[in-house]
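Lab notebook, design round three. We kept the backbone fixed and only want residue identities now. Task for the bench partner: fill in a sequence for the structure below.
Input structure tokens:
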């Protein structure tokens, strides 16, 4: 009988030990899993308002924009030239030929004719690579250069900064659009939509600025003034000596008439003169007696 129960007792002891070891291992695993859980999950409460959701999380890595290609140099060239010419029409034809050779065009044109001179003011846009050749052509073959001012402005830094900010704004815009799809309350949707609208306006402004800079970089601007001085400054100097002499006589007569009319305009004072003479004579006679 003892031999029968002894193996059964040993089997029960082995099974109990294995069960205790299994429970101990499971308890240790559960404890380790609790230790591995981040403490922040129990310390940070979910945001109660959309404004809190929009704030960047300090525990998250900062948003990094997509890698941008290296921006080449952005140089804006501008110029001002004033050229004295002998004939405006001939100079205008020469300018048209020079513009055609350099792929340039006239943006604005203004002509002014006075008694002293003729002025033709042009605002010319020319590809950046042809700007220097255009300046040299005007300096050599159109007329006498009275003044010339050329300037270059490096806007590479501004262009780079605007491009980086634009890329960041586009990333934020996509994130806010994702938040809008998952918004649960009307208040959250309104606040997210307002933020999206502001970001879209800022993106439009930044893109407009980049387009403006690209336009000024790709096409330089030249303010060209063609100037012709007239030999005679009055209408009478264009006719003969006899006509000019007659005009002078006429002007003298007109001046004399104007003088007489000016004296006549004082007629009330002329009436006082005889009275003054009569009183003076009467006083003289009394003094003699």
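Proposed sequence:
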């Amino acid at each position: 009988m003892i031999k029968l129960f002894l193996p059964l007792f040993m089997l029960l002891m082995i099974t109990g030990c294995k069960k205790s070891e299994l429970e101990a291992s499971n308890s240790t695993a559960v404890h380790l899993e609790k230790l591995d859980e981040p403490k922040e999950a129990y310390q940070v409460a979910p945001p109660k308002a959309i404004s809190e959701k929009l704030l960047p999380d300090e525990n998250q890595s900062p948003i990094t924009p997509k890698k941008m290609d290296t921006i080449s140099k952005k140089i804006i060239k501008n110029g001002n030239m004033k050229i004295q010419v002998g004939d405006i029409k001939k100079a205008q034809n020469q300018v048209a030929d020079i513009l055609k050779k350099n792929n340039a065009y006239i943006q604005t044109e203004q002509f002014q004719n006075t008694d002293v001179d003729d002025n033709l003011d042009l605002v010319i846009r020319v590809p950046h690579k042809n700007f220097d050749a255009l300046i040299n052509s005007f300096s050599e073959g159109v007329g006498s250069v009275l003044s010339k001012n050329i300037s270059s402005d490096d806007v590479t830094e501004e262009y780079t900064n605007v491009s980086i900010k634009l890329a960041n704004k586009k990333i934020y815009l996509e994130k806010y659009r994702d938040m809008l799809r998952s918004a649960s309350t009307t208040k959250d949707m309104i606040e997210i939509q307002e933020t999206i609208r502001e970001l879209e306006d800022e993106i439009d402004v930044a893109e407009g600025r980049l387009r403006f800079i690209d336009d000024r970089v790709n096409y330089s601007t030249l303010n060209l003034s063609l100037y012709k001085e007239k030999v005679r400054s009055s209408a009478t100097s264009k006719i003969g000596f006899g006509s000019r002499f007659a005009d002078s006589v006429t002007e003298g007569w007109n001046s004399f008439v104007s003088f007489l009319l000016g004296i006549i305009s004082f007629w009330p004072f002329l009436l006082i003169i005889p009275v003054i003479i009569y009183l003076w004579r009467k006083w003289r006679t009394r003094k003699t007696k």
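Keep this in mind before ordering anything: The beta strands are 75-84, 105-113, 117-127, 144-154, 219-229.
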